[in-house]
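Q: I'm writing up a methods section and want to include an example of the input and output format. Could you take the sequence below and give the corresponding predicted structure tokens, formatted cleanly so I can copy it straight into the document?
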Amino acid sequence: MKTLVENQFRKSILAAPDRILVATDLTDVDYLIPHAIAQAKAGGARVTLIHALSPSDVVPMDGSTIPYVDKTKIARDARVALLAAARRLEAEGILCKTAVRDGIPDEVIPEELRQSGATRLILGTHGRGKLGQLTMGSVARELIKNVNVPVFIVGPHARAGFPHFTPRKILHPVSLMGAYRDSLGLALEIAQTYRTELTLLHVLDRDQDETMNPERTVEWARNALRALIPDTTRLAPPVHVEVTSGRISEEILKAAERCEADWIVLGADGGALSWPFSESAAYKVTTAAKCPVLTLRHEPVLTEEAVDLEKVHFTFPV
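A: Here is the clean output for your methods example:
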């Protein structure tokens, strides 16, 4: 069993990592590097930039039009691009190394996370196909589901015109059921690390029984959120709570706009999902948010605590 000290250390190292991995396809360097710089400075972190040379990068799609592809040149060009990006971090006093690896990105990146000991992964998303930027990259989808460190995602709508890279306001949706405590602890720790405003959001089911008292139900949810905030007198700035009802992904995006969130910290189910990830709230929020999203994977394990919370959630006051 982990001690309180071990748990606190884990939360601190996840909130302000000392090693960061930035995965890039080389087209997204310009908007990823400023985020990497800000986060590295927050924790005095070292940064590794990695690019995976997948088979599709070195094998011509149409052999009749491209008779030969020089894999060595492609790898050399990638190294040159990464070194140029590394110089930008080093100019800010951040230690940085680069890596170009052969292999499929969703296999190469987790392996590099293990080897480097990084506790933060930064990456962008892109769409290939008819939906364009409304499509989340398949690599990002797999990483959100499968890696055990926070994944900081700069989605298609969060790339340009971002006013600052150090967060001032953070939104964290809370389910009040299941394995939500890890992502909640991360959100609280990040808020204290950056001394930023944090809003906890709970979205009620808009299709709940009409016989329930809506006002008392909302007040119950607010009280449940407040009960999750440790020793409010020591938090600076204070944590806000907000309760709304509707479709989860839509209400998260609306709340992010209302509170002018710079980051959304979001728990994401891992393991064997009971629904396609493309239909999950994490997917929908990440592809549509106008700010970056930091996801933390948790296993959808139903604990004794989760069962109790589920009973509370559905036993509304009348």
